[in-house]
Design brief:
By secondary structure, the chain is mainly beta. It is about 5% helix and about 55% strand.
Length: about 270
């Protein structure tokens, strides 16, 4: 009997050790949209994420489970060996190649890959190289975080900093520059970007109202690799969200784009 008790204790300890590095999280929601003058619709969403950690190695796996056959949405592994970090994206996400008027791609691409990064002793810089040959140098100097990626089709440079109470980010991609500003005035969180989109969030955590102005989208012709972009007029949204004592959250969103009201109940763990 003592041997059986000891064996059970060892078995329990091994099982606990095997699961100690596993974290499970997820989210689910149900939404009702009156769709303005169109027919109303009810939609559902449920996702599960599993993160396993062993020493300096982490594996993340995510699934979309609101369907008859749950589908993988991500599979990533990252490990650190001294100053070297190796990250592998093992899931090839499916992209829509149907012309939807949003400038989406015409041909499915392969987005799996491996990136190797080295923490170089040059002003806290990190140098990265992926299997496509793209080289990235990033780091923070004097409070400004800078990242530069050299790749075929155009380099990308991003700089971000918090200056005088404002969060500033500037990105130059293949010669085109975009920027965003974020600040808080009298308890209201404000954001503004180069596309003239503005967001103002009021209230406290768990009980908020967010007012947004979404900028107009201009028509763009199709290219050899992407479909055309259909014009969309500027519109505004108002979203009210509140956490419930049940652990769920309830939100109501009005959009002037189609005069619609969406009610959504969600939970995350």
């Amino acid at each position: 009997m003592k041997k059986l008790i000891a064996l059970f204790a060892v078995s329990t300890l091994a099982s606990t050790a095997a699961t100690a590095g596993i974290a499970l999280s997820g989210a689910a929601s149900v939404s009702y949209d009156d769709n303005g003058s169109k027919a109303s619709a009810t939609t559902y969403d449920a996702d599960i994420t599993l993160v396993g950690t062993a020493g300096g190695t982490t594996f993340t796996y995510s699934m979309d489970v609101d369907r008859a056959s749950p589908a993988t949405t991500g599979a990533d592994m990252a490990t650190t060996i001294g100053p070297v970090t190796i990250a592998a994206d093992m899931f090839d996400a499916a992209e829509s190649v149907t012309d939807s008027g949003t400038g989406n791609v015409k041909v499915q691409s392969v987005d799996t890959g491996v990136t190797i990064s080295l923490d170089a002793p040059i002003g806290d810089a990190t140098v990265g190289l992926d299997n496509s040959g793209n080289v990235t140098v990033s780091g923070t100097w004097s409070g400004v975080t800078v990242s530069h990626t050299s790749k075929k089709g155009g380099d990308t440079t991003t700089a971000a900093a918090a200056i005088a109470g404002m969060d500033i980010s500037v990105t130059n991609k293949a010669g085109a520059t975009t920027w965003s500003l974020g600040t808080t005035v009298s308890g209201v969180d404000l954001t503004l970007n180069s596309k003239q989109a503005i967001t103002a969030a009021f209230g406290l955590t768990g009980n908020t109202m967010t007012v947004s102005h979404v900028a107009a989208v201009a028509t763009a012709v199709s290219t050899a690799t992407t479909h055309s972009v259909s014009a969309v007029k500027a519109y505004s949204t108002v979203a009210i969200s509140r956490d419930l004592t049940s652990g769920a959250a309830l939100s109501a969103t009005y959009s002037s784009k189609d005069d619609s009201l969406t009610l959504k109940a969600s939970v995350a763990f």
